Structure formats: structure tokens, C-alpha cells
Amino acid sequence: MRVQSFGRQATLIAGLTVSVFGCSPGEPETAYASSSTTSSSEAQSSQSVARVKGEALRLVLASSGNVARYRVREQLVGHDLPNDAVGETKSLTGALSIDSSGKVIRDVSKFTVDAATFVSDRDRRDGFVRGRLLEADTYPAITLVPTSIRGVNLPLPKSGSAAIEMTANLTVRDVTRPTTWKGTVQFANGSVTGSASTAFTFDDLLLEQPRVPVLLSVADTIKLEIDFNLVSQP
Question: Less Cβ crowding at N or C end of the chain, within 10 Å?
Fold first, then answer.
């Protein structure tokens, strides 16, 4: 995994925010991509790494109930209220392995998002995000590699909920940066469902906020969110 300078990542996030100029006013915009299921080859790959030394628990993403999302708050010229520009995809695969002491086994823990499948309510925005922003033809996968997690203890509870905090390396277009995700999970007989999010400012990336004619302002915070449905792999 190659780590490049924050400059390129800054350009990436700037493009994401500029792309919201096509949003319409009103309620926050949320659109939904079609679900995808894990291919047989991916399933076989997951099985092949499921038994690693020291592994006490392996959780894999189920074929449904998983969403990755970007969210940016904006204020359009000529409108009284701000709104969120939102793009989503349900094309996620991956797994998390934990050892008996509760530590993440990094070599076999990774989540992958299909970069070409983000959908919003604007075709123009989607084309920009997939093409110029994510360059999905060249970099088809966005990856998240967990490095630590707090709030999940072994053995897993059979019911109830907990707050979690996860650190993970996020890679987009071969640019990697550390992120911290906070959220909540619910336990039910070996499954773990929940949501988590991370956020950062333009200043964090030494990035100047975009200026385009139809935008009165753009919030200094970019938020990334994941809804997940993890099941225990025997």
C-alpha cells in the first residue's frame, strides 16, 4: 500500500465538495445504489484467509445491509437553508479478524468499496465523482484497513449494544491516510450491525475551501459514513 502526500488527497476531497454544486435545495439528498453480493471467487478468498494463527473471531460483511456514504453540507446562492449533498453505494465487501486479546489482525482485515458505484440524485455529480474525482477506471477500489478497535470484547455478547471507536487506513486513488471512526453496534447471536463515521476539515489537509458561483458557502467538514452488517464466520 503506497502512501503519498496529503496534497493529492486534498485535491480529491476538494473535487468531492465542488461536485455538490449540482444539488437542489430542500431536504438532505440521499439516493440509493443497487445491492451487490459477494462473488464466488471473493467468498473463496475469504474462506482461504479465515484460519490464521491467533485468530479468535472473524466477521465478514453480509450480502445486504451495508452502505458507504459521503456527506457535505452546503449553502446555495439564492436559498435560505443549507442542505446535505449525499452519495451512496452498497457495493461493499470485506472482513475483520480479531485475536483472543481483542486486537485487530491487520493482514487479513480489509473492507473494499467499488469506486464506480456511488450514486446521488444527480447524474452530473455521479459522472464527476466516478470519472474525474475517483478515476474509477484506473483505481476501481477504495479500501479501509482497520488497525485497532475499541468497544468489542470477546466473546461477543448475544444481545445489546455498545459504542465503538476504530482506527483505520483509508486508501483512495493510491493515497492513504489514517482515520478514526466512531459509532455504535448492536449484537445478535454472532452478528454485529451498526454504523460509524469519520470527519475531517479542509484545514486538516491544508486545503482551501472551493469557491464556485452557485455556492454561497461549503462547510469546513467532510463526513464519511458506513452502515454495516457483519456476521461471524465459523
Answer: C
Looking at the domain assignment, is residue 182 inside a domain?
Answer: yes
Is the residue at 10 inside a domain?
A: yes
Is 15 part of a structural domain of the chain? yes
Is the predicted pLDDT of residue 47 greater than 90, yes or no? no
On whether the CB atoms of residues 120 and 86 are closer than 8 A, the answer is yes
CB 110 within 8 A of CB 119: no
Q: Are 60 and 95 in contact (CB under 8 A)?
A: yes
| Of the listed ranges 69-73, 82-86, 150-154, 212-216, the one predicted with least confidence | 212-216
Give the separation between CA 18 and CA 211, rounded to whole angstroms: 8
> Is pLDDT larger for residue 95 or for residue 51?
95
Q: For 108-130, how does the pLDDT look when each residue is reduced to its tens digit (9 = 90+)?
A: 999 999 989 999 877 877 777 78
Domain containing 32 equals 6-37+54-232
Query: What's the number of domains the chain is made of?
Result: 1
Nearest C-alpha neighbor of 168 from the set 87, 104, 94: 104
Residue 69 belongs to domain with CATH number: 2.40.128.110
- Is the confidence at residue 156, as pLDDT, over 80? yes
The kind and range of the H/E element at 215 are strand 215-232
